[in-house]
Specification:
The complex is a heterodimer of chains A (782) and B (158). Chain A has 782 residues and is of the alpha+beta class. Chain A is 28% helix and 23% strand. Chain B is of the alpha+beta class and 158 residues long. The N and C termini of chain B lie far apart (40 Å). Classes of the chains: A alpha+beta (782), B alpha+beta (158).
């Protein structure tokens, strides 16, 4: 059974999902259930005067209409906190319903609860709010200008924090002595996550027990419970049960603690009846935390041979109207520290301003800081190729961290544990037929072909499984970043695993059962995985940041090993052998060198529960818990290559090929790993070619529906060509890294580099994403 | 004002009173408890709510329940033959054509409808036919493979 790890096992999640039997939050209905609709500000910035709820209250079927005044009059905390505190950061209060001022279109001002979802919407239309509009500011750099609209009285120039890393003087000196310098000013486009399932919550309150049960769309139910209890509603943590049933995608957007779920919980307690809220797509687009939105100036210095001497980056990062849960970490710890990429760079300096804008809050979205960093580094490497006259692959190759230099300490505080970058580049070049592509490009340029060919390379690194907790704490995290697992072995030898990871499409039930079955040598169907319920599972940190296999999986492996250790003691006792002589293999404990002296897994488990004859001082039963705190991040890497054709007359881009060579360490289920790569790549291609959240100067979201915001659809993408190299992680028990975000980190730079490469004959050095035909067409005009 | 409608859903005749403005998807989900049909956008743009009306794929979030009066509606719950999966469902499972599963019911119904009219589509035809159904997880790669596999197995309903 050992080989179950590494097999493309079909997912056990799927039978329910392909037959429509999977239950998402909105699929649950409770007796006496009511429906909440949140009344939202149509202004980006305004003073709120009177809120007249009388007409709404008079609608038959309405059971309650509440405003900030009602929350304040209650004993609830009534706010959503940020959970990442940078030094000297301003942390203005974020009430769950806006009090005196609304700060973005979508900020909630009232909630209407009715017995019917249509009636609730009707009544919400009748809530009269007296707004006095204030000026808006939507650009993260413009927000810092003197005279820009100010969101909070005590936050001058809207600067929530200033943060830097690296050595400014050393970097300046590197630039002074450089043979070549290249620079770029770029904008990393604001994105809307667009999980296909909108956020939803269904709260019910048991007044006799004083317990709240909240089903909700969450990637980390224990974190939500903790923040809910600490700041939002008035209930102790143990009286709140959060259940995440099937969750229809997250991509970061369901990590964060938003006002809406807290409002629903508050209403259920206030009304003492179940309350359901399901976001519309428009609400999702207005209020889900957006991603990216950086304004950056980046420079690279090189010597005459194309060796990088220094890198300097200045970035204004939008925080939006309030500091969302992990928002401050994204453009700092997850961005600045990644700016060494795959390269040995002797001097780096990064400065970041996190600024408030009258827009939806910005927080972690697939990749979270790392796509932005990779985009900066990989755009600069292409420009470095231009100024040195080297092929983009050659300038990268000359600067890769030497495989003999791992672990490698970068100038921006990370210690890369392992890596071997050239083989992944070579494999990607081989699959793509890079040499022939360049020849084809040359031919087309000479013949004046109507289809411009562009080839873009992106050599990326990802730091995921953020750890250890002590370091995270020193960097501002108000939480540990470990993961938990409880391994409960039943008397007949089957196993239930309770994991703090919380899947929303990643296939954890399959992958995790492979880890357990593989390690124990039992059948997959003897393993059950329980997740996403704070009533069943011990505290856990959830699923985000490509952490579940590396941290959650390692917690499970550690717990299983503890179970085996106890089993070994019992087997030694049963076999009258020394404990150190017992080997455990393929579900059997045997005496080293005497394979006939053996006890099967089931016999040992049963002995643990019968407890008729256990070693002295041993407790009965077989159940172990592990809280696994990794010693370092894990560092997946790879090379992706995009090949595009651009129509010379229309500027339209066709992505004709996409090659992804990833190194995610050991692989538990290659089918699932490839699926993660595909999805991530597609999301990054979306960012490069189509996606952009656009606010007008008044702070109105112009891309509030799927008509205006273009997510990738099937006809815009090719099939992907994927492969892997394998450099195991040296510091976790599985040798695994992360894979969930890799594609979205690599592909924006690969595609953009390809488009710019195609446009080189027109003198184009850089274009900002999304690379829409009009922008490209304009760039081609003389 | 309530209207009486009669709809055959997954082979069973349902006679109900519905408000004129009730959406078909809410009729299916709230009144009949068929929650396999999901709502992703309420604007016909994501395809999560795709069902068949008289064998044709339709986005049920922008159809009124009263418009379905007198028709035959098939939802994802009605696709399998008892406990035997439809070949398209089997192919999605086999090819890892889903991750979070939220778009999957609509995607499977749209893909099956394609094979009804075009039993051997090219990759381009598959991608063109499914462009009204958004999947944010898979990058469509394995969805295309699943449809190809189902086509090879003769998965059309025709």
């Amino acid at each position: 059974m050992g080989n179950v790890i590494g097999s493309a096992v079909r997912r056990r999640e799927d039978p329910a999902l392909i037959t429509g039997k999977g239950k998402y939050t909105d699929d649950f209905c409770l007796p006496g259930q009511t429906y909440a609709v949140i009344v939202r500000s149509p202004y980006a910035h305004a003073r709120v005067g009177t809120v007249d709820t009388s007409a709404a209250e008079a609608v038959p079927g309405v059971v309650g209409v509440f405003t900030a005044a009602d929350i304040e009059a209650s004993d609830a905390g009534g706010v959503v906190p940020t959970a990442w505190l940078l030094p000297d950061m301003k942390t203005p209060e974020h009430p769950i319903l806006a009090k005196d001022i609304v700060r973005y279109v979508g900020d909630g001002v009232a909630v209407v609860v009715a017995t019917d979802r249509y009636v609730a919407r009707d009544a919400a239309e009748l809530v009269e709010v007296d707004y006095d509009p204030l000026p808006a500011v939507v650009d993260p750099k413009a927000a810092t200008a003197q005279g820009a609209a100010q969101l909070f009285e005590d936050v001058p120039r809207n600067i929530a924090f200033e943060w830097d890393i690296g050595d400014r003087e050393k970097t300046a000196a590197a630039f002074d002595g450089a043979a070549h310098v290249a620079e770029v000013e770029l904008r990393n486009n604001r994105l809307i996550p667009h999980a296909v399932e909108p956020r939803a919550a269904l709260a019910s309150f048991d007044e006799h027990k004083g317990e709240l049960t909240l089903r909700m769309t969450s990637q980390n139910p224990h974190v939500h419970r903790l923040l809910m209890s600490l700041a939002s509603i008035n209930l102790p943590e143990h009286k709140i049960r959060i259940i995440t049933p099937e969750v229809g995608g997250g991509f970061g957007s369901k990590i964060h603690h938003y006002p809406d779920e807290a409002i629903v919980a508050w209403c259920a307690m206030k009304l003492n009846r179940p309350v359901k809220w399901t976001a519309t797509r428009s609400e999702t687009n207005l209020t889900d935390a957006h991603g990216r939105d950086h304004v950056t100036k980046a420079e690279i210095a090189l010597d005459a041979e194309g060796k990088i001497l220094g890198l300097r980056v200045h970035t204004y990062a939008a925080m939006g109207a309030y500091l969302s849960t992990f928002a401050p970490a994204v453009p700092t710890i997850l961005y600045g520290t990644l700016l060494s990429g795959q390269y040995d760079i002797p001097a780096i300096y990064v400065k970041v301003w996190g600024t408030f804008t009258t827009t939806a809050p910005v927080d972690a979205y697939r990749g979270a800081g790392r796509p932005e960093a990779t985009f900066v580094v990989e755009r600069l490497l292409d420009l470095a190729g231009d100024v040195t006259g080297l092929d983009p692959t050659e300038v990268r190759r000359r600067n890769f961290v030497n495989p003999g230099n791992f672990p490698f300490l970068t100038q921006v505080a990370l210690e890369y544990d392992s890596g071997n970058y050239e083989p992944a580049l070579d494999r990607a070049l081989e699959i793509s037929g890079y040499g022939e592509l360049r020849e084809d490009q040359k031919r087309r340029r000479e013949s004046g072909s109507d289809k411009l060919l562009g080839i873009g390379v992106s050599c990326f690194i990802e730091a995921c499984g953020l750890a250890p907790s002590q370091v995270a704490g020193a960097l501002g995290a108000q939480a540990g970043l470990w993961e938990s697992a409880k391994i409960r072995v039943h008397p007949t030898g089957s196993v239930t695993v309770y994991t703090g990871s919380s899947a929303h499409g990643q296939g954890h039930e399959t992958t995790f059962s492979q880890i357990v079955a593989g390690r124990l040598g039992i059948d997959l169907d003897q393993v059950e995985i329980v997740h996403g319920d704070t009533g069943e599972v011990q505290f856990g940190m959830g699923t985000y940041g490509s952490r579940s296999a590396a941290v959650g999986g390692s917690a499970i492996a550690t717990g299983v090993d503890r179970v085996i250790e106890k089993g070994r003691k019992i087997a030694a006792h049963m076999l009258e052998a020394a404990e150190e002589d017992i080997v455990f293999e393929d579900g059997e404990f045997s005496v080293k060198g005497s394979p006939d002296r053996a006890k099967a897994w089931g016999d040992v488990v049963l002995a643990a529960y019968l407890a008729h004859d256990l070693p002295e001082d041993m407790e009965p039963g077989l159940e172990k818990t592990a809280f696994y705190d990794p010693s370092n991040f894990v560092y997946p890497f790879g090379t992706h290559i995009a090949v595009v054709e651009i129509d010379r007359h229309t500027g339209e881009v066709e992505l004709v090929r996409y090659i992804a060579v990833d190194d995610v360490g050991n692989v538990i289920n290659p089918m699932i790993v490839e699926g993660q790569v595909h999805g991530g790549v597609a999301q990054g291609i979306g960012q490069a070619l189509w996606e952009e959240a656009v606010y007008d100067e008044n702070g109105q979201l112009l891309t509030g529906t799927l008509l205006d915001y273009a997510v990738p659809r099937s006809h815009g993408l090719p099939s992907f060509e994927t492969d892997r190299t394998v450099t195991p992680c040296p510091h976790n028990p599985l040798g695994v890294k992360g894979v969930g975000e890799a594609g979205s980190i690599a592909s924006p730079a690969a595609v953009t580099n390809a488009v710019v490469d195609a446009l080189k004959p027109f003198g184009v050095r850089h274009l900002d994403m999304p690379l829409k035909p009009e922008k490209i067409w304009r760039a081609m005009q003389p | 004002m309530a209207h009486q409608i009669r709809v055959e859903v997954n082979g069973e005749v349902q006679e109900r009173e519905v408000e004129a403005r009730k959406l078909l998807v809410h009729f299916l989900r709230d009144d009949l408890g068929l929650t396999g049909t999901n709502v992703g956008c309420e604007t016909t743009l994501c395809g999560a709510c795709t069902v068949w009306i008289d064998g044709q794929p339709v986005k049920s979030c922008t159809q009124l329940a009263v418009q379905a009066d007198g028709t035959r509606v098939t939802t994802i719950e009605g696709l399998a033959d008892g406990s035997k999966l439809h070949p398209m469902q089997e192919a999605f499972w086999e090819e890892h054509g889903l991750q979070c599963g939220f778009c999957t019911p609509g995607m499977i119904l749209a893909a099956t409808a394609l094979l009804d009219t075009n039993p051997n589509p090219t990759e381009g035809e598959i991608r063109e036919a499914l462009k009204g159904n958004i999947c944010r997880c898979t990058g469509y790669h394995n969805i295309v493979k699943a449809v190809q596999k189902a086509a090879q197995g003769g998965a059309s309903n025709g």
